User: Fold this.
Amino acid sequence: MGRWNTLHLFDVKKFYNDITPTLRGEKGCLDKDYVEFLSSYRTGGISKLERYELIKIIDISISKIIEISNQFDLSFTYHKIYNNIRSWDDQRKYLNENQYYYEFNAFFEYYIFKYCSDFSPYIACSKYGLLSNLDPKRNSVGYEILCILENYDNFFCSDGNGIVSWISIEDTEILSNCKEDFFSRYSYKDNDFSYLEGFMKFVEVATINELGLIRGQDVREWTLEKLPQFKLVQKGDWNHFKFKEVLIFR
Assistant:
C-alpha cells in the first residue's frame, strides 16, 4: 500500500531568514508555537497538565529542538550525525535511541506549515511519488531536480512520515523551463497531459511568486489544515491560474 504524497509551495527566504535561526536558538522564541503544537500533538492535549509540568515539558523539549537543529549544516538538509551513518541498521539504532527524534520531526513539520508553507492548495503526487507520475528523461535536469524532491534519505522523513525534501527558488525556476524533459517521454505513454500540465502550472505559480517547493509524505493533515492558509499566494489570486482537478484545496 502506497503513501499519501503531496507537493506544496514553500517560502524559502522566510525559512532561512527566520525559521532556521529561531530553531537554532539564535533569534526569537519557540515557546508559544511549541505550546500550540503540543496541544494538538500530545495525546489528550495539555489542559490536564499542571502549570509546573507544562513549563518543564516546554523547557526540556525546546532545548532538544535547538540541540537537534544545531546538528544540521547551513542548508538544514544534512544532519551531521545521521547522514554520516552508512548502515541502515545503525541509522535505526541512532534514531531509536533519540527519544526526541519523532517529536522534533512533528514540530518541524508543524512549524514549516505554520509560517512558510501552505498545506492547501497542494498537488497530490500519487502513492509512488513524482518520478512515477511524471517519468522525466533520465539524467535530464528535470529528472535531477525531481530526485531532490524525492530524496527520502534524510533525518526528517526517516520513519516514512513528514517532510521529504524541498527545492530552492532557483531550482524551481529551472524546473519551470524543463518542460521537454517531461513531455518528450510522457507523450508516448498516453495522451492525457492534465496531470503534467497541472504540475507545470503549479511550478509556474511558485516561480512567479519567487517560491520554492516542498514535498511531504503522510503529513499530519488533520493538524496542518487548521493552520492559516493562503499565506504565500492569496486565495483570489489562484483564480488567475487555470488548474484542472490536479490542484487540491482543503
About this structure: The chain has eleven helices and five strands.
